[in-house]
Amino acid sequence: MALVERSLLGPGPSNTYPEATAGLAAPLLGHLDPEFLALLDETGSRLRTVWGTQNLRTLPLSGTGSIGMEAAFVNFVRPGDVVVVAVNGLFGERMCDVASRYGAEVVRVDHSWGDPVDIQRVLDAHPEPSLVAAVHAETSTGARSDIAGLGAALRARDERTLLLVDCVTSIGGEHIDLDAWNVDIAYAGTQKCLGVPPGLAPFTVSERAWQRRVDKPTTWYLDLGLIGNYVTGGSSGGRAYHHTAPTAMVASLHAALGRVLDEGMESVVERHRAAGEALQSGLQEMGLSLFAAEGHRLHQLTSVWVPDGVESADVRKRLLNEYGIEIGSGAGQFANSVWRIGLMGHNARLDRVEMLLGALRSVLRR
Amino acid sequence: MALVERSLLGPGPSNTYPEATAGLAAPLLGHLDPEFLALLDETGSRLRTVWGTQNLRTLPLSGTGSIGMEAAFVNFVRPGDVVVVAVNGLFGERMCDVASRYGAEVVRVDHSWGDPVDIQRVLDAHPEPSLVAAVHAETSTGARSDIAGLGAALRARDERTLLLVDCVTSIGGEHIDLDAWNVDIAYAGTQKCLGVPPGLAPFTVSERAWQRRVDKPTTWYLDLGLIGNYVTGGSSGGRAYHHTAPTAMVASLHAALGRVLDEGMESVVERHRAAGEALQSGLQEMGLSLFAAEGHRLHQLTSVWVPDGVESADVRKRLLNEYGIEIGSGAGQFANSVWRIGLMGHNARLDRVEMLLGALRSVLRR
């Protein structure tokens, strides 16, 4: 059966960096091999650099990005805890669902989809929540929120509230400075701007959040206390086996992070900016309207209204079948009225922009 | 940095089938691409063949083998349910931990490690449990239990009790016939006899178990009702996005299963038998004693006592550093007194047997 090759220009996964593919296909190591543990340690260190944090507990969890969200709530929410969630898209919605499954008293702060998080409304939602959760780059809408501002405002008010941030679509594609931004808990995915296949959830926890984690969460698989003994060593200094780490995926992430850091985060961010702006200009020149609020648009993921009279699914199908290009539909109520176009990681390149614009122009013309 | 190549002859991961590596490195597909959904469907169908089941819900979960155990308990145990667990090694122990986190009233049936499960003692443990759980091939001890006998005995007694089986180390290495054996829920890993890197947990559920699943489990990530809408289609027939499936890992599993089925399960099982018996004979000829109870020894994973006066860790380190061969220590209280040697998947070959025996002989001689 012939292999099919796609240009993955949807909301993720994106095409992988060549280094990530090489990492996947490298000879497999065992999860207790000293060579692998060194590679895992270096992966943690590279994640710290990309995320701008000194957090000791910085590691890839063994599941796709969503497992990061689950790990965040199951390890840091106790029944009855007040959790304020800024909802400005699908992933904020999902946070409410996950937090409530673990017994949180969820206080939603609803926004129009496509808008950034309104910091004052989040502050006003509750005087002393145990946790505030927000999404940095909303994959469902293409809008970026000001996490630095949110973190500063929260910390200015009190020392107690923990700040939890979803970095799934921002990591590796834009500037992030978790420590300076006062973020306590963050998770991400590998399949967007990091240019690695889906299958790992980078995760990081500040020391002050670590001290407040749930001692024995309902989950065994995502019990950070147990995982911590493998990743950073236990109280005795030994690295106790927890579960078999997905060693090939970790090697892939390690390699992609090396590629990103060799290029330099500043250059990587600039590459995403240049590609995203070229795409957004091109779409507007074609007469299309962008969905996310102006001034808050992601470069790595562009949301655009489907033109009147155009059948969304038909265009996506033709891009896929005639050009091998995958773009995404809108999320939720915008499934048929919005497209999402990603230029993430290895795809944050001008050649991809021209390819997509040309193909879209051709399909819309006919 | 030079890549390191190992012979992975421990309890897993094992060296991958070449087809699995090719699957990993193939051009990445999106999780909603029709080509990927067809590949996922075929993966389910291949898993059914390897497992001997007609279960519609047969799918790879997005995590390592342990996530299968967690999914089994979180989706099928309600607080207060009586769960009988046959404990004859580390993974039975872990089942007790996981089940109790979800509120089960756990009834343990303890065995000596290395022994198979005693069916009568399991039956006698409780007259009407909601679930009985056992491990088919105990990775921690190298002992095989008679799941066919257990399933038949349970079904002869009542129609209500569900049977949950851990197939992590048996799948792809020995004969399994879940439907004939009356198994309702089973999970496995990819990194043992299937010869795929760690990162997926094959999972299957019978129709009668499906009808009794927990409606809204505490977990979002492992909520089988939600995952089912993506894998088998929802009530409307559509395949709703749940989380981003680890598409590269699924492609790898698909390719390895194809390899295994092309060779034929009968031949694969025979290959594991021949390699395991050759290893066990060779070890005994060297004067070593096998750990697991005679007549119940796995072929794919051999446990052997460390000879008197030999430092276990020193031998393992020398095998690793001088020969590039990884073998495993014992588990739990046998950490320093037992070795575990795996001949799984691509490693179930006579050349690996000779290599290991020769290296071990050399190291023990000095």
Task: Write a compact overview of the structure shown.
The structure is a homodimer of 366-residue chains. With 366 residues, chain A is an alpha/beta fold.
Question: Layout of SSEs?
Answer:
The structure is a homodimer of 366-residue chains.
Chain A: E1 7-8, H1 18-25, H2 34-51, E2 57-61, H3 65-76, E3 82-87, H4 90-101, E4 105-110, H5 119-125, E5 131-135, E6 137-138, E7 143-144, H6 147-157, E8 162-166, E9 185-187, E10 201-205, H7 207-210, H8 224-231, H9 247-263, H10 265-285, E11 301-305, H11 312-323, E12 325-326, E13 328-329, E14 338-342, H12 350-365
Parallel strand pairs in A: 1-12, 3-4, 3-5, 5-8, 8-9
Antiparallel strand pairs in A: 2-10, 6-7, 9-10, 11-14, 13-14
Family (chains A, B): Belongs to the class-V pyridoxal-phosphate-dependent aminotransferase family.
GO molecular function, one term (chains A, B): alanine-glyoxylate transaminase activity
Binding site for substrate (chains A, B): 340
